[in-house]
Amino acid sequence: MSTSPRGAGAQAQNPPRRRADAERNITAILDAAAACLSRRSQVSMAEVATAAGVGRVTLYAHFSSREVLLEAVLDRAIAQAAAVIEQTRPDDGPADVALQRLVRSSWEVLDRHRGLFEATQREFGAARLRQRHDPAFSRIEALLARGRSEGTIRTDLPLSWLVTAVYALMHAAADDVNTNRLPQRDAGRVLEATVLSAVAMRGEPPTG
Known about the structure:
This protein has 208 residues and is mainly alpha-helical. 76% of the residues lie in helices and 0% in strands. The chain is elongated and about 60 Å long.
């Protein structure tokens, strides 16, 4: 005859169930924070809790402050941006043509998270924000460095400055689309031409 308490099986299942509930809450909070920030960079913890459908106690149990929450949302956004960059196949084909694919596809990620980047730049500062972007920046830097070795990317300017220029132009495209200065349907083509003109060895975009 078993001597195990009647509730032992249920109790054994409680920790996995609690972890699943916690993971769902975290996902809901991050989704809500990203959605709120996409509309307005000044968002309170109370607004995020309401949008996520959780109580403030639950919110603070997972994210002890607004700064901690912003860092988590930012890290997830950067991971998404890095995934988009990888989908453009930056290692395939000539570097300048790969760069065309990258900028045409990736600027919309910056646009989607524009409010988040505004909030984090204001609260963390440009240097700290740039540091958190380093994984994505390093991918672009490697692509530009490969273009230099292939003779298609200019060598008269520091490589780090070329990376900054690409990043700044992608942000500028997102800003112009959002302020109706640039039609969204034209943004990829305009951005691609501008970036390639800025970084190409002969100042002209490739035709490949």
